[in-house]
Amino acid sequence: MKKALTLIVMLAATAAMFAQVYAVDLFFSEYVEGTSNNKALEIFNGTGEPVDLSNYTVKLASNGGTWSSTNILNMSGVLDDGDVYVIANSQAEASILAIANVTSTVTYYNGNDVVGLFNGNTLIDIIGVYQQDPGTANWPVAGTPSATAEHTLIRKPTVIQGNTNFLAGAGTNADDSEWIVYPQNYFADLGQHTFNPGAPEQAATPTFNPPAGVYANPISVTISSTTPGAIIRYTTDGTEPNETSTLYSAPIAMATTTTLKAKAYATGFSPSYTATANYIFPVQVSNIAALRASAADGTTIYQLANEVILTMQQNWRHQKFIQDATAAILIDDYNNIMNTPYNIGDGITGITGTLNRYTTGMLQFWPVINPGPATSTGNVIIPQLVTIAEITNNAELYQSRLMRLDNVHYASPSGNYAAQTSYDLLDATGTIVMRTQFSDADYIGTPMHQGNFNVYVIVTQYNATTQVTPRMLSDFNPVANDDNVLTPMQIELIGNYPNPFNPETTIRFKMEKSAPAEVIIYNEKGQIVKTFSTIATQGINSVVWDGKDNNGHPVASGVYLFRLKSGSYSSTKKMVLMK
Ligand SMILES: [Ca+2]
Ligand SMILES: [Ca+2]
Ligand SMILES: [Ca+2]
Question: Does domain 283-367 match CATH 2.40.50.140?
Fold first, then answer.
C-alpha cells in the first residue's frame, strides 16, 4: 500500500516536471466586435489531440433572448492541436475574411448579445450573460466598461478551459480577468493563439491615484503595484512600457491631456499587464457659439464653461439638444454617458466632450463624462421668430436651435403624422422640410394640422437639406386666420352636441392658452357623476362623455350639469340624456 502510494507520487512529480498542461476542451480564444461588420470568433484547441469539430456548435442569443435556431453554426472538420478555428461575419473586412475558416450569421452580435460554444448539448464556454440584455452599456471585461462592444477580447495564455459564468471569467481588473481587452478593430492576433498554461505568475498590474478622468486643475499621479518589491516603469506618450522605460520614483505632475501607461516588474514574476489611464484636461470654451467655432476634429476634448439649457431629448442615441444665448448644438450620446435624468428646461453646467461633424452636416457634441445633476430647472427658452427663408439661408447659424415659425401650413396635409417622414411646410417666404425625426413625439399618429398654425421647431440638417422638427404636440399653436393677427382667445365653455343625447355627447370649450382644465358632470342632486382632467391646449378642446359614471356604469335618463374649471374660470351648462 505504502509502495503504491509512493509510486503514484513519483509519477505525478514526473508528469509535473516534464510535461504539459493541456486544455480541458475547446474554448473561445478571441472575440472581435469592431466597426460595422468587423466581427469574428476564434476557437482554440489546446487539448493535445486533434478534435472532431462535428460535435461542436456555436450559438447566438440576441438582446436578452434565447438561443437562436437560425443564427447557429454546426461546425465540421478536424481542428489540430495548437490550432485555431476562425468564424467571421461575411461582410467583415478583407484582412479578417482572409483568415476565416468559415463565415456565419452566428457573428450577428453587437455587444449586448451572447455567443455560446457547445460540445454536444453541453455549453462549455460563453461570452455575455445568457438571457440578459445590458443594452448600450454592454458588459464590462477586466474592469473596462462596455468591453463586449467595439473591442477585441483575447483569452490569456494561462487559460485552459472555457467558462460558462461569463462575469466570473470577465473579472473586475486586468489581473483577475481571463481576458485581455484590446481596442476596437485589433485584428493582429486573429488566426493564432498564445497558449502557455505553465507561465509564471505575473506581477500585479499597477494602479493609478487619482484614477483616469477629466480634471480642470493640475494633478499629481502616484503609481503602485501590490506585488512586494515590484518596480514600475511608465510612459506618457502612449507607447507600451518596457524594461527600459522611465522608472517610477515619485508622483508624476500632470497639467495637460496625457495617456499614462505603466508595467510592474518583480523578481520571480513575469511582467504585469500594462495599465493605461487617460487624463483629460479639456479645452475650456465660453459658450456654444465658441464651441461650434472650434475644430471638429473628433479628438480634442472641450468643456462648456457656461450653463446651457436642455430644449429637447429623445431615447434614440440618448440625443439631447442644448441651447444658450449664443447658439445650440446636438449632443449625440450613443453610450449614454450623460445618464443623469434631465428634464426639458434644465440648466446643465460643464458638459464635456469631443466635437464631430456628422456626415449629414450636423455638428455633434459627443460627451466623455457625465456632468452630473442639473444646475437649475424650469428655464424657459423663448424661441426667436423667423421665416422659413431665414432658416434656409442661415442653416448653420440656426442648427439645433429651437425657433418659432408663424403662419405656416403643409402643402398637402392628410391623415396622421407618421414617424421618420418628410412633409413640405410653407410660409409666405418659402418651403422647408418638416421631418418627423423624433419618433417618440406625442403627435406621431395624430391628425396632421390643417390650415395655418404657429409652431416651435428644432432646426436640423440632412446633407444639403435643412429640416425642422416640432418637439411635441404643444409646440403647435393653431392660428384663426391667415393675416398674422391672432384672434384674442378667452376661456369659454361652448356647449355640448348632440343635446339631447343618447348615450354619447361631445363637450367643447375654448382656451386662450395651454393650461390644466377640468370638465365635471353633476346629476340633478349636485353629485359628481364623472370628471375629466386634462392639460387643455390653446384653441378648441373637446371631451366625449359616453353617458357612464366614474365607475363605468351607464347613468339614468335625466338632466345633467357640466362645468368647465380652469384656473379662476368656471362655467356650467345643462344637458339632457334621453334613453
Ligand atoms: Ca461594433
Ligand atoms: Ca444586439
Ligand atoms: Ca487569437
Answer: yes
